[in-house]
Amino acid sequence: MTNPPKLAFCIVANPEKYSIQKPLIRVVEWCKSNNTPLFITQELFSFFPALSEFDSLKIVSSETEAIQNSEIVIALGGDGTMLHTAQMVKYSSKPVLGINTGRLGFMANIQPSQIEDAFDHIVKNDFTIDKRDLLQATVSGGKSYYALNEFLFTKKDTSSMITLSVEYDGKLINDYWADGLLVSSPSGSTAYNLSAGGPIVLPGTPVMVLTPINPHTLTTRPLVLPSGKKLTVKTSETPENILFSYDGTILPHNSKLDVEISRSEFSFHLIQLPDQNFFETLRNKLMWGMDKRKN
Questions:
Q1: Which CA distances in Å does 47 have to 12, 20, 259?
Q2: pLDDT of residue 2
Q3: φ, ψ for residue 51, nearest 5 deg
Q4: Per-domain residue ranges for the chain?
Q5: For the whole model, what pTM was predicted?
Q6: Strands 58-60 and 38-41
Q7: Which helix (H) or strand (E) element contains residue 18?
Q8: CATH architecture under which domain 134-265 falls
Q9: Whole-angstrom Cα distance, residue 92 to residue 116?
Q10: Which long-range CB contacts under 8 A does 158-163 form with residues at least 24 apart?
Q11: Residue 27 has what pLDDT?
Q12: Phi/psi zone of residue 248: left (φ > 0), alpha (ψ -120 to 50 degrees), beta?
């Protein structure tokens, strides 16, 4: 009986975040002890002198190269790092393990103290994949952008509300007069969408959530729509008045917006260990359902 082939890991992290140093060393030490190849970028290597003690590291020039050479991607940081990693791996669908060194870490739900245990599960293939679909936005001109959490349309450099006309499958939904509008995936339903009063949606549900931000009329409520058909957002606002972004990245635009949004062909494959599930994460991270009257 032959042994299974060794998995190769890589790390995606923001080297300027000092909080990653100790978890990073734990990852490197585990990989060295278990003879597991670990690819990291030259930039990350140069930020932490302690890494020079580990001659087993595979140093490469870019995150793209590190991902190409690995089977498992380790996202080390907070949810911002997870969003960045989703953009890096969307074409390859490689499994991602999120290790939280930030504050909330909703998707990066492995704590530094769990690193060794998590890796033991991975090498034994004792995990499942939580598949998270990305949304795709195509602007006039044909260029497409992809979001794991949400697309945001909001006012810029003005105290006035903006007006957005929204259609679904060719039918008018509403002309929104508000501070902004969110189009969220199920993954993004627990992010900005939740703060704006939108619903929590179970990941994997084939829907998108349309949530107005501070609408002028109280009767304008969030709307859940199947993500397989196109949602169109148009505005006559000038570029100076409106900001368009995906997962926190602002997109430049020099003309009036005309954007089509639907579920994309790409997905983010999040590693989930045997004792993890979405509802447990809601309870632990968001204190969902907590009742202080109970001991």
A1: 14, 11, 40
A2: 44
A3: -70, -20
A4: 9-127+273-286, 134-265
A5: 0.90
A6: parallel
A7: none
A8: Sandwich (2.60)
A9: 26
A10: 158/240, 158/241, 160/241, 161/214, 161/216, 162/235, 162/237, 162/241, 162/242, 163/235, 163/236, 163/237
A11: 96
A12: left
Would strands 162-168 and 9-13 be described as parallel, antiparallel, or unpaired? Answer: unpaired
Gap between the Cα atoms of 251 and 88, Å rounded: 18
The domain defined by 9-127+273-286 folds into Rossmann fold (3.40.50)
Distance CA(121)–CA(127), nearest Å, equals 7
Going from the C-alpha of 177 to that of each of 153, 215, 222, the distances in angstroms are 12, 6, 14
Q: How many CB atoms lie within 10 A of CB 218?
A: 6
| Pair 128, 203: CB distance under 8 Å | no
Does the annotation mark 179 as catalytic?
Answer: no
What per-residue confidence (pLDDT) applies to 184? Answer: 98
Find the catalytic residue in 79, 130, 133, 247.
Answer: 79
Q: Give the model confidence (pLDDT) of 125-180 as tens digits.
A: 999 999 999 999 999 888 999 999 999 999 987 778 999 999 999 999 999 999 99
